[in-house]
Amino acid sequence: MRSLDSFDRISLGVFPTPIHRLDNISAKLGTNVFIKRDDLTGLGLGGNKTRKLEFLLADAKKKGAELVFTTGGAQSNHAMLTAAACTRLGLKCILILKKRGVTERLGNQLLEYLMGTEVIFMDTDDYADIYEEMDRIGTQMGVPYYKIPCGGSNALGALGYVECVREITGQDRFDHLICAEGSGGTMAGLALGAKLFAPEMKVYGMMVDTDPFDVITPQLMREAANLLEADIEITPTDYILRDMCGPGYAIASKEGNEAISLLAGSEGIFLDPVYTGKAFAGLVAMAKEGTFGPDDRVLFLHSGGAGGLFAVDMS
Ligand SMILES: Cc1ncc(COP(=O)(O)O)c(C=O)c1O
Question: Could you tell me if 169 and 264 lie in one domain?
């Protein structure tokens, strides 16, 4: 197998991120709940995309890109962090975002305004239109450009979360690992990382969108495993998925809002309504269903999302 260290990577964050026990939550849920603070990755307001961008932007630089495009919804945390990383690296960044969600100067839109990022809104539901527009603008500008897919969720981006599991195994041992699944790269990376470095740890993806993650997750795992030249077979037992989308992607759910209040009111830690709140609601539901024993060690990946917290109606 090829070593993770053999891939080009640009340092953008502060790693390892801390892990600590949530004593009050653990007492309430009757198990041992820990939190991996990827909301503190040190770029922008923190978040999971920092790890992916370390691999993706190293690839962009290596290929001589001067311009980076990416996409997402109007309040995409990934888009904001891509802009932040490009700002730091002196790369021009253009965000072509779906004109869906809060487009006013709030949340991540405010942060992009503060960075002076060029943002274009496209009135489309199809990312294919947006990738075409990237090619049109890139060709017109006549500079070498690099396209990062929505969420940074390709095989190379997923390596960031394979690396995260390697980091976790150097910090402690856990029976369960829980994350939000939005475009799939984080979950695929974690599930592959667990298969390679911590096979005893079960990995759960809390789906916050309605895409076919039962297809996307193993496919991304396979592609990332190929990059690593890992001779392994990906099977459905390598990952556990749970639907936590509620009324729809980027629409707050009752369970998600309750989970946000529970963590804020118990531990003084803030989740967001689009991703981490719904994911933590999944953890709470599983605890209530008896999935975790009293001696089990459950790790929740806090994947960030602070920017969006100030742009979404939680009522
Ligand atoms: C805060 C936050 N958590 C989790 C996710 C989900 O990660 P992925 O897109 O890799 O599934 C995202 C994705 O945008 C995010 O912004």
Answer: yes
Distance from residue 185's CA to the centre of ligand 1 (Å): 8
pTM, two decimals, is 0.98
Does the residue 285 lie in any domain? yes
Q: Which of 45, 48, 75 to mutate to test the pocket of ligand 1 (most atoms within 8 A of CB)?
A: 48
Q: What is the CATH number of the domain that holds 180?
A: 3.40.50.1100
**Model confidence pLDDT, tens digit, residues 183-218:** 999 999 999 999 999 999 999 999 999 999 999 999
pLDDT in tens, 132-144: 999 999 999 999 9
Domain ranges, residue 28: 4-48+153-309
The residue among 3, 12, 33 whose CA lies nearest residue 288 is 33
Residues 186 and 202 in one domain: yes
Place of tokens 């072509």: 96
Does 23 lie in the same domain as 170? yes
What's the structural domain count of the chain?
A: 2
Residues 6+ apart with CB under 8 A from 228: 1, 2, 4, 159, 162, 196
pLDDT band at residue 310, thresholds of 50, 70 and 90?
A: confident
